[in-house]
Amino acid sequence: MKLILRGKRFGFSLREIKELITLFDEDRSGKKQLEKTIEYGERKITEINEQIDELTRLRDEMMAYKKKFEAKLAALQE
What we know:
By secondary structure, the protein is mostly helical. It has one domain. Helix content is 87%, strand content 0%. It contains three helices and no strands. It has helices at residues 2-9, 14-26, 31-77. Helix 2 (14-26) runs antiparallel to helix 3 (31-77). The longest helix is centred in the C-terminal third of the chain and has 47 residues, at 31-77. The N and C termini lie far apart (63 Å).
């Protein structure tokens, strides 16, 4: 149950989680499961980094517009 909850929290699909559970049943050493977990984890980290980059760009753009709007408002209030 812990694996399922952790997998969902990290954004793994139910199919991926099922595969990880099945891999442990096939190989009780856990080696295959760990290899696949690392593979999925690397993909997820890449996705998260891309989302962070996109959100950072969006924030920076919004902050630039906010400064322009504040300057325009200040000029109108003078």
